[in-house]
Amino acid sequence: MSLDTILLIDDEPSNLVSFKALFRRRFNVLLAKNIGEALLILEAHSMIKVIICDQKLENESGVNFLKDVKFKFPDPIRIILTGFEDVEVLTDAINAAEVFRFISKPWNEIDFDNAIVKAIEVYDYKESLKKSNSDLKKAYNELTKFVYSASHDMRAPLASVIGLVELAKEDPYFKNDAFYLPNIEKSILKLDDFVRNIVEYYQNREKASEFEEVDLHALLSTCIESLNNYRAFLKVSIELDLKHQTPIVTDPFRLQIILSNLISNGIKYQKESNSNKKVKISSQNINNEVELVVSDNGIGIEHSKLPDLFKMFFRATTQSSGSGIGLYIVQEAVNAIGGRIAVNSIVDEGSEFRIYIPTQI
């Protein structure tokens, strides 16, 4: 088994010789009599686990050297050798150079050995933790990419099935079917909504924000068109009342995510008994912001549940058939464009979401 590598910097040759004689059987000992030599050794050896430096060097203090070393070679654990105790030096060493131990001169072999062993244990633990974090990050990235890819690939066949259901509803053979096709359509729309949320979550997390002037009419048309199957299935009307005067300069991708999710919720969470189901989108200028309001006359949300509404996987109603991540994605997207969101809701009367978008970036 290879020995752990340590480096000693001391400008007294006798100290270097005695140190190597004491510890050469326990460790792979590298020696430097000045800072220049130490830097060359650090450049050449990537597996140095512990740096031991005398506080009193010829041209610089050990603490100042270790401060500089910390930025270029942050991994090795740092130990100071000192023949005196100065509170200011000790404080600087701990706070700025992040020194692990102080060893007093003349040193005690057992204490010195124990300090080096402990330092190596800390180094090994940090490296193990770093590898675990790297492996975890790699696994997480691979998983999210897989989920995104799988979800993205599922949307096309789902759209085909939805289209086939629409065609089947027009076929005289299925014209009087009031059970099978409606339930198939409901299940497919639910799955399509879940897949869309997964895709949006990934895209919102990975895509950099790109701000530009947004045509709100055109963007809303795209949102509403993408929800036509839901709207037709649940017989919900859409009203627009856009009164803002200043241009909206924001990230169109994230604004579409926000509006699509809010309009979709307004469509889905309607009262079955309501013969006039509707969702209204309005806009106006308020100070240096554009206020967008998405309101509905649906089932509403209990006041006690509003504080948790934007948490991941939270479902505010037993009628919810969604994934519980739609409003979480909305909140994340609002944060990404530098906006804010507020909600008011009354049970059995409906909900109102207000998004405030700054007019200046």
Describe, in short, the structure shown.
With 361 residues, the chain is α/β, with parallel strands linked by helices.
What does this structure look like?
By secondary structure, this protein is of the alpha/beta class. It folds into three domains: 5-107, Rossmann fold (3-Layer(aba) Sandwich); 132-206; 207-361, Heat Shock Protein 90 (2-Layer Sandwich), CATH 3.30.565.10. The chain has helices spanning 13-23, 35-44, 62-72, 87-95, 109-170, 180-206, 216-226, 228-234, 252-268, 326-336; strands spanning 5-9, 28-32, 48-54, 77-82, 101-104, 212-214, 237-242, 248-250, 278-286, 289-296, 340-346, 350-358. The strands form three sheets. The protein has a five-stranded parallel beta sheet with strand order 2-1-3-4-5, sandwiched between helices. A five-stranded mixed beta sheet has the order 7-9-10-12-11, covered by helices on one side. A two-stranded antiparallel ribbon has the order 6-8. A hairpin with a 3-residue loop joins strand 11 and strand 12 (350-358). The longest helix is centred in the middle third of the chain and has 62 residues, at 109-170. It is elongated and about 100 Å long.
